[in-house]
Write a sequence for this structure.
């Protein structure tokens, strides 16, 4: 028989657990309304883990006697010790060593008249490998407590089952603790119990590669306590189902612990601090988890109610058909390559924060307080609602991926920055801002305000035949690129600084391009203005077109009922198009092929002309047989040039060379045109 022991005083807490103590006992204390840095949170956890390990090392581990087929089930007794709870470690270890290990025993314990009955029965039969105790009445906890030590039986499996509705575990009056321990390769199985905590760090502890279960149980922890309802660590695994934890701190997982839900779990408190915390652990979630209540004083939204860090994995168990529903007051915070997968998530007054984390939610029923996704994180939502009560900014950065579908978020301003990929479909938003090389995919979605792309961002924006993507305005800046199809921009599109726009089967009031490139296909645009830009328009009706400052605009099969203007070293080409009036001036050119200029004798720059060419500009007509049904006056000013090819034979009422300029006009004889010098 082998005994591992380090004695400890009864007054010393059994284990010191992360976040289960006063905040002053950790390296960093977080103030209300101040964000917690991941490095500081991790240092707090490291400090608490070290102290937890130190305290656990003081628990005495006893080896049971050798396996035996003996039917000897006489209880352990110690001469001179009436209650085994009062035995010392030396006395108890010596008595246990004499008992052969029995494989399996089940018995009933009635605490109705003696609250010590459960503890005494456990200490009397600790030599049983698989010991099941069915409880009636109200029993003291702290089963492992001796006079001078806390013990655990190596590899023992202990079952505590409430045999009657009044089965309860309460704090020992001496230690003021109810601590239930499962560890050292054994197991602790709890069912049908009502557990009320005293002055302790936890109600239930699963540790050191143990396999455990807790079902159909209520754990009550005072609101003033810093204790945890359940803490699991050091490779422990446990199943949990139909459990309610009334505690400011619900479930904590660390050091490779594994939690599997097999029924609903409810964590409630009117002074909630941390409901669910995981560090380098795993949870297979196949059932509903509810987290309800109010935040504790001095705990603000930055203190995550669900905090999952450093390589933790939380996901729905693919082997089970039940769904996970996480409903909570507070925040979800994931970091350090952690994964959380939920069927449903409801955050009544908190935020979601990811830092090197992955969160997948099928139904996001409510997200009231914000979204923060950073540093290679991944956030995906299939359906839901965000920002029902107030506007907030959802921030995504540093090479993260966000995919949000079928979500109503009309109060949410989505901001992405730093090589982020953002995808949304069938959603409603307040606005979107994309920066620093991010990529955006938008489908069948609505933006009540604007969509803005900056600094080499890329966006693919589309709607469908039945559902158009709509927005108030679209801003494209600093080398960004947008491909848009089946969208409606209620006000206008603006491009600047080497940006690119492809606009197809879409509608916009205005497109304004500066030092950019625009392609418009099968779209409706009222006004197109280009400055130092290149624009190609196909099969799209427009009201007015203006090319200036070195711009090049080509209109193919375009109808314009306003005027088209090329000025300040620009060029405008009409191919198979129909326009009302045309103006070319300041070293610019207008080329017309297979097109019609209707002409309405409107006033253009104070000159009564339908086509007005001025100041070193040029006009060319090729393959054009006429300029509409009526007469069309053309005025050529200030060293400009106009040429009509030989096929031009009708529609010219007169060409005026104005103000004694040195302009040149070539007109075929078939045109029967009158060329008048304006001098």
């Amino acid at each position: 028989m082998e005994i591992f022991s380090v004695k400890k005083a009864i007054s010393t807490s059994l284990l010191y657990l992360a976040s289960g103590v006063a905040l002053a006992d950790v390296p960093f204390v977080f103030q209300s309304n101040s964000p917690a840095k991941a490095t500081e949170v991790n240092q707090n956890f490291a400090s608490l883990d070290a102290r937890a390990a130190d305290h656990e090392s003081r628990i005495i581990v006893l080896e049971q006697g050798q396996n035996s087929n003996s039917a000897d089930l006489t209880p352990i007794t110690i001469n001179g010790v009436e209650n085994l709870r009062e035995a010392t470690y030396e006395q108890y270890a010596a008595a246990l060593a004499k008992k052969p290990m029995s494989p399996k025993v089940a018995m009933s314990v009635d605490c109705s008249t003696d609250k010590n009955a459960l503890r005494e029965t456990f200490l009397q039969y600790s030599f049983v490998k698989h010991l099941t105790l069915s409880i009636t009445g109200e029993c003291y906890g702290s089963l492992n407590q001796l006079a001078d030590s806390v013990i655990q039986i190596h590899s023992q499996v202990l079952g505590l089952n409430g045999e009657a509705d009044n089965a309860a575990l309460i704090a020992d009056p001496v230690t003021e603790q109810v601590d239930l321990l499962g560890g050292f390769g054994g197991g602790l199985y709890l069912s049908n119990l009502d557990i009320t905590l005293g002055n302790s760090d936890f109600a239930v502890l699963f540790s050191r590669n143990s396999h455990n279960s807790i079902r159909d149980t209520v754990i009550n922890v005072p609101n003033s306590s810093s204790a945890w309802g359940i803490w699991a660590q050091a490779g422990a695994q446990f199943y949990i189902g139909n459990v309610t934890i009334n505690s400011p701190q619900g479930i904590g997982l660390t050091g490779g612990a594994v939690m599997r839900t097999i029924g609903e779990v409810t964590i409630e408190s009117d002074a909630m601090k941390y409901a669910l915390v995981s560090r380098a652990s795993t949870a297979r979630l196949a059932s509903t988890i509810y987290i309800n209540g109010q935040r504790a004083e001095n705990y603000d939204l930055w203190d995550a109610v669900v905090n999952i860090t450093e390589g933790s994995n939380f996901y729905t168990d693919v082997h089970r058909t039940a769904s996970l529903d996480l409903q909570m007051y507070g925040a979800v915070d994931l970091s350090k390559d952690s994964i959380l997968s939920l069927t449903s998530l409801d955050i009544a007054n908190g935020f979601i924060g990811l830092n090197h984390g992955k969160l997948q939610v099928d139904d996001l029923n409510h997200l009231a307080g914000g979204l923060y996704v950073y540093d290679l994180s991944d956030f995906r939502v299939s359906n839901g609602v965000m920002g029902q009560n107030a506007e907030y900014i959802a921030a995504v950065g540093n090479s993260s991926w966000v995919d949000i579908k079928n979500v109503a978020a009309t109060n949410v301003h989505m901001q992405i920055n730093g090589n982020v990929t953002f995808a949304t479909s069938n959603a409603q938003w307040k606005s979107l801002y994309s920066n620093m090389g991010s990529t955006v995919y938008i489908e069948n979605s609505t933006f009540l305000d604007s969509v803005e792309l900056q600094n080499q961002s890329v966006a693919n924006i589309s709607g469908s035949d039945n559902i158009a993507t709509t927005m108030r305005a679209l801003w494209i800046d600093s080398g960004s690129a947008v491909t848009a199809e089946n969208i409606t921009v209620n006000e206008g599109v603006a491009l600047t600084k080497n940006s690119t726009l492809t606009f197809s089967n879409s509608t916009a009031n205005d497109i304004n391009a500066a030092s950019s490139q625009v392609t418009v296909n099968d779209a409706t645009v009222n006004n197109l203005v280009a400055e130092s830009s290149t624009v190609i328009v196909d099969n799209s009706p427009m009201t007015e077109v203006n090319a200036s400052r070195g711009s090049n605009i080509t209109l193919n099969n375009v109808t314009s009922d306003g005027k088209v203007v090329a000025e300040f070293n620009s060029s405008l080409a009409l191919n198979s198009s129909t326009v009302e009036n045309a103006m070319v001036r300041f070293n610019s050119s207008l080329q017309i092929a297979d097109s019609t200029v209707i002409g309405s004798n409107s006033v253009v720059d104070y000159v009564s002309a339908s086509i007005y060419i001025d100041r070193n500009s040029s006009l060319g007509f090729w393959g054009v047989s006429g300029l509409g049904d009526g007469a069309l006056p053309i005025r050529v000013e200030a060293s400009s040039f106009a040429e009509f090819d030989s096929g031009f034979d009708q529609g010219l009422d007169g060409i005026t060379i104005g103000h004694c300029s040195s302009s040149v006009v070539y007109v075929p004889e078939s045109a029967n045109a009158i060329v008048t010098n304006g001098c």
